[in-house]
Specification:
rod-shaped; 2 domains; Immunoglobulin-like; Neural-cadherin; three-stranded antiparallel beta sheet; cadherin binding; single chain; cell adhesion; mainly beta; four-stranded mixed beta sheet; 37% strand
Length: 243
């Protein structure tokens, strides 16, 4: 029983009993003897035992590999030149089963989403729904969602476990016209792995601010003055000046 995605390493030690006093045990995986025979090799150890080693990557997410491997190994007691001599050769079947490890991050269906919303949108309004899946555990790994609060320090947005992002606190275009919120998808592996997506929120202006005079104006005039400009009145408006 193996975890997938292991490096080259011995996974099985084979011990052989031979009534002869001397021998030169040689081991090998029989080519084309079954699925997975090309992914393993046999080596002889100094004590005469043999070790089965991985020589190609294993991946539980591969549907064929997730069902395991079955192939034959061979040992002979007179060296490689006699590996077909039936009186000096023994065979055995090897069955290898893979166990999944958490080697994949969740994957978002859409990693970058942009939405527009008016600044007077109600608290609780849903903006967008993110969906992520995890290839581990045959695609059955549970994914949870969170917001990276370093991208939303005022906690103006929330996300539920269905991946729906909502307004949590009132927005103000005059304060922040654009938000880039980092959405996290976290799987249930040990240790957990995380993927990141981005929700860009464009806050649209509404006319929610009155104009403001730049200063108080108090011109002093003499009586009987002829018509002329006596003051220039200036005012500003925090709302979108293009409107």
């Amino acid at each position: 029983l193996l975890f997938s995605n292991l490096p080259e390493m011995p996974i099985l030690t084979v011990t052989v009993h031979d009534e002869d006093e001397t021998n030169k045990f040689q081991y090998k995986v029989i080519e084309n003897s079954g699925y997975g025979a090309d992914k393993f090799t046999m080596v002889r150890n100094n004590d005469g035992t043999g070790s089965l080693k991985i020589v190609q990557p294993l991946d539980y997410e591969d549907q064929l590999q997730s069902n395991g491997f079955r192939f034959r190994i061979q040992v002979n007691d007179k060296g490689e030149d006699n590996d077909n001599d039936k009186y000096h050769v023994a065979y055995s079947w090897v069955v290898v089963k893979l166990r999944d490890i958490n080697d994949n991050k969740p994957q978002f269906e859409r990693a970058n989403i942009e939405v527009s919303v008016y600044e007077n949108a109600e608290v609780g309004k849903s903006l967008e729904t993110f969906k992520a899946t995890d290839p581990d555990q045959g695609g059955k790994s549970k994914v949870s969602y969170a917001i990276d609060r370093s991208s939303d320090r005022k906690r103006q947005f929330s996300i539920n476990q269905e991946g729906t992002v909502s307004i949590q606190r009132s927005l103000d275009r005059e304060d922040t016209p654009r938000h880039q919120v980092k959405i996290l998808a976290i799987d249930d592996g040990v240790p957990p792995r995380t993927a990141t997506a981005t929700l860009t929120v464009i806050v649209q202006d509404i006319n929610d601010n009155a104009p403001t005079f730049l200063k108080d104006y108090r011109p002093v005039l003499t009586e009987h003055i002829t018509p002329k400009k006596v003051a220039e009145i200036l005012a500003t408006d925090d709302d979108d000046r293009s409107k």
